[in-house]
Amino acid sequence: MFSEGITLWLQQFSTPILDKFFLMVTYLGSVQAYMLLLLVVYWCYNRRIGRGVILAFVGTAWLNCVLKDFMGLGRPSADIVQVMAYEWSNGFPSGHMQFATTVWGYLALHIKNRTFRVAAVLVVLMIGLSRLYLGVHFPGDVLGGFLLGLMVLAIVIFWERKRPLANMSASWRTVLFIALPLLGAMLVQSNEGFRLAGIWSALLLTDVSQHFPGADKPLSLKALIGRAVIGLPGFLIAYILIKLFIPQGLPTYLAYAAATTWVTAGAPALFRRWGLGAWPQQACNACQPLVVPAQAFALCLLLAVGAAVATTDWSSTFSVTTAGAGALPALVTNKDFLVLGHKGAEGMAPGNTLAAYAQALKAGADVLEMDVQRTKDGHVVVIHDADVTAVSEGTGEVAEMTLAQLQALDAGYRFSSDGVGYPFRGKGLRIPTLAEVLAAFPNTPVNIDMKDHSAGMPEALLAVVDQADARSRVIVASFDGPTIRAFRDLAPDIPTALAEDEMLSFVILTRVGVGAFYHPPAKYMQIPVRQGPVLLATPAMVKLAARLGMEIHVWTVNDTGTIQRLIESGVQGIVTDYPARVAQEIAQ
C-alpha cells in the first residue's frame, strides 16, 4: 500500500494529453476549486446546504492537517516515479481524496438528484486516481483519505441531526466558536490552521441560514449571475490581499474571519439591496447571528491590517534602521539560493576534511559547512563530535588531546559509502585546523558551527577568523544560546544563525499565532525539516521568516523529493551531503 508499484504501472500509459487531463482532475480537489464550489453552493443554490458543506470542509481539512503533521509520512520518490505535481506537505492521508469524499459526499446526500450523485461518485474516484497517476501519493494515502473523509462525513451528518449545542446560551456559544477553532489552529504546524479557524469562527458566529425557512427558495437566472458577479470578485480580492500582505498566525485568523463575514453578511446585504433574490430580514431574536456582522467585520479587518502594518519592514521605504533581521549582518553573495556542503560533502568523502571540502566545491557547493572544537592546547579544529572515535581509529576527547595527537590520527579511517569498503583509509587524511581550511579555500564562504560550548570558544574562533581576514565570508552558528550570543557581542558585524532556544521561541510564538511580532537576533535560521513530531520547514514558516528579514537553511537533506519541495517552498539554502543533487535541482 505504500510502494510506487501502482503508479509505475499507471504511468506506462502516460501521454501529454492524459497528463494534462489528470492535472485538471486533480485541480478539482484543490483548495481554490473548493472555495469556488462552496461559495457558489452557499450563494447561488442553497444557503443552508452551503453552510453545512463549508463547515464539513473546514473540519475535514483541519483533521487532514493534524494527521499529516503527526504521521510525517513521505511521498513517492521522484527517483522512482515521475512526480507531475508539486506538493510540500507530508503524504498520509491524501488531502485531495479526503476533501473530495467529505465535500462531494455531503452534497450527494443533500442534493436528491440521481445524475448528480453518480457524477459526485465519479469525481471522487477520478480525483483519487489522479493522485496515483501524478505520482504524488501512495495507494495507502488515497485509501486513508477516503476512509477519513467518510468518517468526517458521518460525524457531520450526526451533528446536524442531533444539534448538541442547540440549548446552549448564545454567550457560551460565542466563546466556544472563537476559542475552539483557535485552539485547533495551534495543533496545526502550518498557517492553514489559522485560515481554517477564521473561516470556522466567522461562519458559526455570523451565518443565520439555519433559522430561515425561506433560505431555500430557487433563484432566477439573473439572480444567480448577479450573485456570482458581485460575490466572487470580492472574495477573490480579499484572498489575494491576505496572501500578499497579511502575516501568519492570528492576523491570518482575523483576515479570514473578515473575508468570511463578507460571504455570510456583506455580499448578502448587496444581494438584498440590488434585488437579487434576497433572503428574508431577521424578524425575531432566534434569527439573529451571535455577533453583529458589520461590527465583527470592521474589528477583524482593522486588527488584521494593523498587524500587517506593525510587522512590515518599512526601512526600504523610509530609509530608517529597524530591529528586524533585515538590519542584521548577512553573507554577501550573488546567489539567491545557497547549496551548503554538509561537512563538505560527507556522502562522498570523510566529513570535515580538506578532501570533502574539495569534493563539495567540485559538486556545486556554494558554502562549506563545518563544525569546530578546541584542542587541549587551544587550537580550533574542524571536527563534529567531542570524541574522535566516530572519524578515526583512535579514542579520546578532543579537548583532552593536543593538536599533534589529533593530527596523528587517520581521519579517513571510518568512512564507507557501502558499509564494506573503506577507500580513504591510509590515504593521509587528517583532522584539519580551521585556519588550514580557511587558507586552503580563501575565496569560499564558510558556515562554522561551534560544537564546543566551553568558555573562551567564541574568542578563539574569532581570532582564527580575523587571522584569515575572513569576516566577510563566514556565518557562525551554535545550538547553544550563551555561546552564540557571546560571539555576537564580540563581533556584531559577522552574520550568525539562531541558537536552539531562539528558534524555540520563534516556533512557539508562531504556533500561538503571534510569530509576526518576533524580533530575530540573527539573519539565519538553520533548521531540520522536522524536529520530532514538529514540522519546521513549511512554506508558512519560510514566508513568515522572510517577512521578518530572516533566511532559512534546512539541514541535512539528501533525497531528491524533499529537495524539490524545499526549493518550491522558498527556503534560501539546503545543507546536504550531496551538493550535486541540490545543484542539479536548482538548475532545472
Short description, anyone?
This protein has helices at residues 5-10, 16-27, 31-45, 47-71, 95-110, 114-133, 139-162, 170-186, 192-206, 221-245, 250-273, 293-310, 315-318, 354-363, 403-407, 434-440, 457-467, 481-490, 500-511, 539-547, 560-569, 579-587; strands spanning 338-341, 367-374, 380-382, 446-450, 474-477, 524-528, 530-531, 534-535, 551-555, 573-576. Helix 3 (31-45) packs antiparallel against helix 4 (47-71), helix 4 packs antiparallel against helix 5 and helix 21 (560-569) packs across helix 22 (579-587). With 588 residues, the protein is an alpha/beta fold.
General description of the model:
By secondary structure, the chain is of the alpha/beta class. The protein has three domains: 1-164, no CATH class; 171-310, no CATH class; 327-587, TIM Barrel. Helix content is 52%, strand content 7%. The chain contains 22 helices and ten strands. The chain has helices spanning 5-10, 16-27, 31-45, 47-71, 95-110, 114-133, 139-162, 170-186, 192-206, 221-245, 250-273, 293-310, 315-318, 354-363, 403-407, 434-440, 457-467, 481-490, 500-511, 539-547, 560-569, 579-587, and strands at residues 338-341, 367-374, 380-382, 446-450, 474-477, 524-528, 530-531, 534-535, 551-555, 573-576. Strands 1, 2, 3, 4, 5, 6, 9 and 10 form an eight-stranded mixed beta sheet that branches. Strands 7-8 form a two-stranded antiparallel sheet. A hairpin with a 5-residue loop joins strand 2 and strand 3 (380-382). Helix 5 (95-110) packs parallel to helix 7 (139-162), helix 10 runs antiparallel to helix 11 and helix 11 (250-273) crosses helix 12. The protein is elongated, with a radius of gyration of 28 Å. The protein starts with a helix and ends with a helix.
